[in-house]
Amino acid sequence: MTSIRTDLLNLEPGLFGLGKGRSNRDFTKEASWGKNKFNNAFPVSLSCYMASKSLKPVYLLLDANAQIKHEKIEFDTLFGLNPLSPDLFFSFETDFTPYRTIVTGKFPRTDLVTLNKSIGNMCLHSLEVKLTALPDNSTYKLPEAQYGCEIVVRPTTIVYLALGIAYKFKDAPERLLNYLDSSSVRRELTWWNVENIIGFVLDLASEIDQILISNLCLQEPFVLQPVWKTKGRTAKLNDNCLDAFVWSDFAFTRLFFNAAREALTRKQEVDRHARSVIWMSRMLLDFALEGRIPHADIIKTLSYNAQTDKAFALNGASTNQYMACAELTNPRIKKDEIRNIVLGGGQNFLSPERRFDAALLSNPELFS
Questions:
Q1: Which of 2, 14, 156, 289 has the maximum number of C-beta atoms within 10 A of its C-beta?
Q2: Domain range for 323
Q3: What is the model's pLDDT at position 190?
C-alpha cells in the first residue's frame, strides 16, 4: 500500500520558503508554475531549504591571479537577510532600482531582487538565476568528476554585470579612467568596425582585469546557479541530485573573457564571447565618461551582424574547469528531499516541454 505523508495532506501547492507574502508570485496558483517562472523560483526555494539545513553554497570568487577560487557563502549574505526571515521579500523578474540613476533609456529587469520589508521594501541585492543540468551533452560520456553544466547568458546579464561594477564607482566614475583608455579613436571610430575592434579585444579584457584585480574586496554575489544531476543524459535524477553554486560578479567574467582569449588564438574574429567583452568594456567606458550606460544602444550598435538574443553560451566541458569540486561530483541534496521543497502537489502544475527524443532516452526498456 502506498504511504501518504500526513504532514502534507492539508498543504497548499507551494515552494519551500516562498509562501504567501514572501514573493511577488502566488505559488498556490498554476500561473506561477510556468517553465520560466519555475526555473528562477525553484533555485530560491532550494536555497531556503539548504539554509534551513545549515548548508552553504559553493562561492566562486576571483583571486589576485585572475583565477577562480572556491569558498562557502552564507545565504544571509547572498540575499541580504536570513532566507527565512519574515522581513525578506523575493521579487522575481523586476528591476534593481538603485541602478536606475546610472542607466540611459529603458531599464532592464533581472531574475531576482531581494527586498527588506521592514525598511520600506529597501532593495538589498540583485541576482541572475541559472538552473543548470548536470551533465550536459558535452560531458555525459566522461567520468563523473568531469561532468559540467552548460551556461547560457542573456545580454541582460552582461548589462547587469556592467551596472554592478559601475555602481561601485558611482561616487567617482572618473576613477575607471585610470584603467580604461579614453582616446577618441577608441571611443568613436573603432568600436563598430570589426577589422578595427578585433585588435583591441585583448587589450579591453586586460584593462578590465586590472579594474577587478585592483578592487577584489568589492566583488559580490551575482549569479545563483543550482545544479540538478541526472544519470547520464537521461531524465532520471541521480540519488544525490541538487546543490547550489554562486558566482561573484568578478568571477563570472572568466567565463567569457577566457573563452574570448582562447578563441582569438585560433581565429581573428569577433565571436559571441569577444562581443560580450566589447559590450562590457564600452558600457564601463561610457559610464566613466558620462556617468550613465546607454546599454540598449551599445548592444544594438555593436552587434557585428550577429543576433543579440543571447550574449554567449559555454558548454560543460568548459565550465567544469571552474566549478569542479566535491559538491559538483556529489551534490548534497538527495532526490527524495525534493518533496520537502516542492510542496502540496505543486509539481502537478508543471508543464514541461514534451520532447520525443527525451521520452525515448528515458524509456530504454523500449529497445530491450
A1: 14
A2: 16-352
A3: 78
